[in-house]
Structure formats: C-alpha cells, structure tokens
Fold Type I-B CRISPR-associated protein Cas7/Csh2.
Amino acid sequence: MTFQQRREYLFIYSVKDANPNGDPLNANHPRYDEETGQVLVSDVRIKRTVRDQWVREGKNVFVDGEAKTSTKRIEELQNILKVKDGKAICGGCIDTRLFGVTYPVDKQSFSWTGPVQFKWGRSLHRVKPELIQGTAAFATKEGSEQRSFRNEYLVPFALIAVYGIANQNAASITGATELDLQDLKSALWDGTVNLITRSKVGHMPCLLIEIVYQAGFQGAIGALDEKIRLVKAGSQEDFSREEEFAIRSLRDCLLDVSPLARRLQALQEHIAVVNIRKDAELSITGELQQVLGDKINIEG
C-alpha cells in the first residue's frame, strides 16, 4: 500500500573543512550565491548521498552511480529483478519509487514524477570558500626533481539546511510506501555520516524534522529552511555579517526555530506527529515543545 499522509522535511547538516558540492564547470569551486554569501547544495547531490547509502545497504536502485549506459543498467536490473517490463523494473527500485524516473526505452518510454522532492540546500550563514594549494604525489614528467602542485576548494565550516516534501498523490503512481519513507530518513542521516571521501569527510547530520500530516491533508508549510535562523550562543543575538563568516562549530550558535513553531501552530489540527532526530551538539531555541505537546516524537 502506498503512503497516504503528506510529509515535509527539514534536514540540517554541518560541513567542516570540506567541499559540500563542487561545481565541475568552475574548477570544483563550492556552489555559491555571491549575493548572499551562502554555499549551495543541489538536490541531485542530496539524492546521491541517499542513493549511495541504499547501495551500501543492498537495496535496488535505478541510478547506482556507476559509469554505464542506461541500456546496460536496465539489463542488469532485468536479471536482478527477473522482470522485463519497464514499470516493473522501476517499481522494484526504491529510488524511482521515491524520486521518479524518465525511463529511456523507445517502445516503453514513460516518466514518473517523484513523490519526494528536495529544494537546493543553503547554508544558514555566510561562508567564505578557501582555495588550498598543496604538493601533488608525483612529478608531471620523467626526470623532473619537483612534484607538481594541486589546488582544491573547501569551506572552513557551514551549517546547511535542506527542505523536502513527500507527496502522497504522486506515490499512488510510483508505488512508494511508508517503509520507503522510513528508509529515506535513515539514508539521509546515515548516508551523510558515510560521506567518507577525501573531499567530503567532515559532513555530519545535525537535525532531521519530519512533519507527518493527517490523511487527506493536501497543504504544506513550504520552505522550512527559510523558517529557522542562527543566533549567537549565549546572548541569542543576531550575528553581524562578519561574525557569520567566523562561525566554525555548533558551539558558536543556536538554532532558533520560533518562526517554524508559529507556522506549525497555525496548522496544528492537520498534523498527526512531528518526528525529530537531533545530534546532541546542536542547541535549539524556540517553542516547538510548547506548540506541539505530545505530537512531538523524539527519535534516536
């Protein structure tokens, strides 16, 4: 049975001395909003983190991250799933059930809009990417006594917020289930911990809020990432522009969820439960508990 209740998600994670999402068309510079000073993370990057975790767990995914043609991947899945029909293949893969697909086979081509959609993520404060230079492992040519140099970009620290929504109407087409959504939450958290590559080590999940609405509710708060803000630890005052650039850890700031709490209060009659998973190092201020009472469920 497909999932019947709409969800909204707010996922926050930290990045320390790493590159959140390099732009290959700009020397792998972190994706960046020059006007606001925020680093950006594409929805594709978030979905890749999730898919990579599902692959580690042995789940069937349509896009497995390997360099191969769609024809080759479809042949592999036909052998794994023991089916030939395109919709049966996509129905057997958790990523196509949740994220949708454009099935690229002439006589069977079709598209599914994914029930789960993510916005681009943005840092909650101004960040200054840095170019780091170092010595490469090898010389560029035989006989050279000097090794070549390498350049790489990183951000000293960034706290990044990502908004997502799960649409029960689209799930009726793709077959996405309640269990799929549970696997999505686990993969967001565990997949971020498992970003253990040279450019990504330093990513850590901090907060995952899942708003589960009553069956039949078709609305949404929308853009949960824009209804939170960072304030100074201790005084709870706003950061100045330069102080935002200097944030280097969760100890420097508090997450103020008061604007989000007010929106939740306005929709309280439509909310079934709010599931919250939080890292112990992240401090939150706001009125979530007072507004939601026993509708809050703390997950480990």
